[in-house]
Amino acid sequence: MKGLELLEKHALSAEIVRAWFMERMIESFKDENVPDEFKDFMREQGIDNDKLGTMIDVNPRMLLDVFDANDIIIETSLYPNGEFTIKIGNQATTNSWKTRKEAEIFAIDAAFEILENKLSPKEEEIN
């Protein structure tokens, strides 16, 4: 699934990803002489799903830290035949991919689903 589709399908997770990304961007200015007003302006403006989705498509690996911070640990392993496999928490997959990026795209998709489930109110909490 493409980054934009993930963000649109998993609205609660998208907010976590957006907040994490914005804070990393603001942190990148800490050694620069960037006024606090500009940082506040950036937070207010935010980043739209189109741009964030494109960044996810280009570099899904950037989300590993987001998922780590939410206790969704993604491990990538290399088989002797040169293919990659993924383990998310205690759940391993029997699938394999020719490139790390393909494996990570699969993992990011699954991790979005896991995070969304963690963030969604349970039925007993609603009633």
Q: What is the structure about, briefly put?
A:
The relative contact order is 0.16.
SSE series: HHHHHEEEHH
Shape: globular
Helix/strand/pairing class, anyone? Answer: mainly alpha
Q: What does the main sheet amount to? A: 3 strands, antiparallel
Strand content: 5-15%
**Annotation field: number of helices:** 7
Mean pLDDT: 88
- Rg over alpha carbons: 17 Å
Query: What number of structural domains do the residues give?
Result: 1
Number of strands: 3
- How many angstroms does the end-to-end distance come to? 33 Å
Helix proportion of residues, in percent?
55-70%
The low-pLDDT segments are: none
Main β-sheet, spatial strand arrangement = 1-2-3
What layout of secondary structure does this protein have?
Layout lengths: L2 H7 L1 H17 L8 H10 L3 H10 L5 H6 L4 E5 L5 E5 L2 E2 L7 H20 L3 H4 L1
Antiparallel strand pairs: 1-2, 2-3
Task: Name its key features.
3-stranded antiparallel beta sheet, 127 residues, mainly alpha
Describe the structure.
The protein is mainly alpha-helical and 127 residues long. It has one domain (3-120). Helices cover 58% and strands 9% of the residues. It has helices at residues 3-9, 11-27, 36-45, 49-58, 64-69, 100-119, 123-126; strands at 74-78, 84-88, 91-92. It has a 3-stranded antiparallel beta sheet with strand order 1-2-3. Strand 1 and strand 2 (84-88) form a beta hairpin. The longest helix has 20 residues, at 100-119. The two termini are 33 Å apart.
